[in-house]
Amino acid sequence: MISQELLEVLACPRCHTRIEFREPDVLRCPNCKVRYPVVDGIPVMLIEEAIPDGKERAD
Amino acid sequence: MAANYARAKFHSSDERLREVLDLALPRPGDLALDVATGAGHVALALAPHVRRVYGLDLTPQMLAQAGRLTAERGIKNVEWVLGDALRLPFADATFDLYTVRAAPHHFPDIDAFLHEAFRVLRPGRHAVFVDCAPPAEAREVLHEVEVRRDPSHVRSLTVDEWVENLEHAGFEVGSATERELDWDFEDWMGNMAVAEPLVRELAEVLESASGEARRQLHPERRDGRLWHAYWHCLIRAERPE
Is the pTM of this model over 0.80? Predict the structure, then answer.
């Protein structure tokens, strides 16, 4: 479970825009229009793991 | 390898953690970030002294190990993030304290790493950098040993190079010392589970050092075991107001 406090400081590693958190385990950068996965409760904040909007997973 | 790090003597020894805390001067209200946290030793040592600490690492296996240590110790104010020290996933001016230990020698881009450290630190707050930092002559010899022991080793900086890079990134260096340790070579090789033939080859590299590098490293056998000098930098640097 990611704490509210962590969610408030997480930013996109590419553009530093604050991460949006609207549903469980979905972290999204509204600027890059990508989602960052959460694996075993740990946010995976790697540019190469980001999932573009509309796709199920990173290519 | 993650399990080896969880019990490696250097990384977990109380004395080595104490010196990081002594440099870090953590305060009870601090939000802290420990970068390249590995199995989380520094983050977990900071936890009782700060409000909250995040440990960041590039390796899920390391963070899984860190998570197990956290549960074992019942620590509640630590969280783990998978991320890159060179592309930190945090907003600008977020942290009261930034720490990184025994990792920058793996980083392919020191400028990017220090730029990111500076960016996420709040003005007036400081960062702590502890890493291997041999004098230049000894580095020429150690570099071969380091990269063959661990191919992810990129380059160690001398303390002077550290200060130069930190100032270039905008930091004010408050304290920068070089600390020499008596180093147990076989123990060091054991941390990375280096195969015996390679251990012998690398021992030969150290024992055949000459000139100023030899004087600095002073390799010697004690009861058959190889000992030599090894250096770390201990640095505190502030992001100016």
Answer: yes
